[in-house]
Structure formats: C-alpha cells, structure tokens
Amino acid sequence: MIGRIAGRVEYKGDDHVLVDVRGVGYIVFCSDRTLAQVPGPGEAVALFTDLLVREDILQLFGFPSLVEKEWHRLLMSVQGVGAKASLAILGTLGPDGVSRAIALGDWNAVKAAKGIGPKTAQRVVNELKDKAPSVMAMDRAPLRSAAPDDLVIDGADAVPPVVSSMRPSHASAQSEALSALGNLGYGPGEAASAVAQAASDDPKADTSALIRAALKLLAPKA
User: Which SMART domains does the UniProt entry name for this protein (predicted)?
Assistant: First the structure.
C-alpha cells in the first residue's frame, strides 16, 4: 500500500498530478481543491495517498491531510459513492465541510457536489453520521515535507517545505472541544453536531469559544 508520496511535480492535469519520486513517476488523482494547492512543475509536493486496487486498474488518490484521506475512505464505503464522487464531495466541501455536513445531517450540502443526487447525499449522511466524531477529532496537522534524506533533486539541497492551506489551530480547537464535551458526558454524535454548528457560526473561534457555543446549543430548550 502506498500511503505517502513526496517528490517533484512533473505536470498537472485536469484531475491528476504526475509526481517524480527518485526517477519514478506516479500519477495521483486529486480533487479540484487539492489540485489548486499543488505547486507548479518542478516544485516539491507531498501528499497522503490511497491506493484503489481493481482487477483491471490501480489508481492513486492524493490528499493534503490524513483527515481528508480518511473521509475519502469512508465516503467510498457508502453504496453508490465511487472515487470520482468522493473527490467531487471533498472538492466541493473540503474535509471540514464534510465533517460539518455529516455531523449536522445536512445532506443538501453534500448534494451540492457535482454528480451527487439527493438519495446518495442522504445515504452518505445516514451511514456516516456515527463516524463523524472520530474523524473530527483526528490530528489536522498538514503533511510533513520531504526530509533531507527522503529526496534530493538533481543533486540540489533538500526540497523546500510544502505549504498547506489548512488551519491546524482551528481544527485542533474542534478536536479539543469534542474531547471536552465528551468528558462532560455528552455523546459523540450530539457533541459533534454542536461543535460543527459552533465552528460553522464562528470559523475563527478558539477552543474555549467553541465549547461555550456548543454548550449553549446543547442546553435544554425552555
């Protein structure tokens, strides 16, 4: 299983990137959102990957974070959602958007992805809602760039760090808020829904603010 690719971009296509790793070229399929983050030809790139194995084909799919890779794996487990549909959902919503949509039961957000109908969107939400909390609590740190002994290009120094557009601090705040609510006795599902709503209402909220907002949402209504 190929779980990580770190090398030099040879070219970018409409739905994939060719990455040269020590003279071997790997075609890695990515969502539009991920492709927008991949640098141009000749630049360094590092991606988490998932290998799809079928009788007639082997395909690599690339992601800038483990959270996005995990959502791809889970989305692919839903009947009617293949690799293309999964990338469409992730490309439209991003991993945090997928987490919020599923935690909140917002199948209309999932339906906004190209090629996803209402029945499929509802199935995604219904089948994955119990798994949203564990994914939301995952470490959101971006992928480490290639280390000096991982890759040397044309005898030059080690490749420069790969810049990620993700915001680990905010994602970490969601994870910490989920943990705090769990310690207070709230179930994973209701905690995930409340944190997702709080994060959606205030994308810049820190851990304390998320906890306060989530508790207000969870408070019994008069």
Answer: HhH1 (SM00278)
